[in-house]
Amino acid sequence: MKAKATRQPKAKCRPYDTSKRAHGPHTKSTSSAEDKLQAISSQAFVDPPSSIPMTLSTSATGAVLFRDLCVQQVKTRYPGVEPRSDWELLYLAEKKVEGSVDEVYAALDERYIKDIKFFGFEECEEMVAKALAWRVEPTGMKPLPKELNKYVHIRPIPDTKYSIRLFPGSISAEYCMDFVDSASGEPVNSPFEFELWGVPDPDTPWLSMPITMQMRSIENAHGIKQEDILPGHEKFILRDGLTCVLVRPGKPKIQFKVPVRKMPEQPQAASEVVILDFPEVID
Hints:
Layout: E1 5-7, H1 33-41, E2 64-65, H2 66-77, H3 86-94, H4 101-119, H5 121-133, E3 135-136, E4 153-156, E5 162-168, E6 174-181, E7 187-188, E8 195-199, E9 213-215, H6 218-221, E10 236-239, E11 243-247, E12 254-257
Antiparallel strand pairs: 1-3, 2-3, 4-5, 5-6, 6-7, 6-10, 8-9, 8-11, 11-12
Helix pairs in contact: 1-5, 2-3, 4-5
């Protein structure tokens, strides 16, 4: 799963009581604020390990609050460990700290004191808050089971107990697809023998994808064998507006078109554009 920053809203209230932590001495650093923010935010994870099943409610563009991403990462990776501050939340989301719960807290205390000595308490707190307030677009982050909205769509596959789910990836025109159990909504890996193809648009084949191309899961594309994909993690990266055909042995082909999302509004050009409303498709 990849993620990219989209925008930085005003920092929200912190969910953790920082007074639980010993602040340590305040030593002013000579580096610039930008350097400090880059240094501390570089700890924030971008590509979570494939062992972590990421499922969060996503926005229209696929963007999620980075804080929410970190909270789920820590809950999954460190059962029994409750971050005592935003700094610990950010650090644990990226770093692997070995040991018992007490040993993890001891390691965090040691590292926290070092950061406070280098950055200073107030600046450290401010930089962590800014990092957690970013919105990121983690392509491949799956919606919650049975979550439906105008951007998440589920359609049943005839003669099976499974459905195809489409959900937003990056606003740069990536849409994701996976298979889910129709009853539970839980994601599953390839549940039957099939091939997925991207094909030219049947209405305007001369304007779209010029060739027919077999689509493979992002895991297969990165060299992960099918049997090694963790349960429920498999997903396919498609493109907005792409026409796809699901081919199953001895079964009718299934064709669908990936939704097209409107791009964020761009500043209007100096001269106005008049749009003529001609019909798009004529039967």
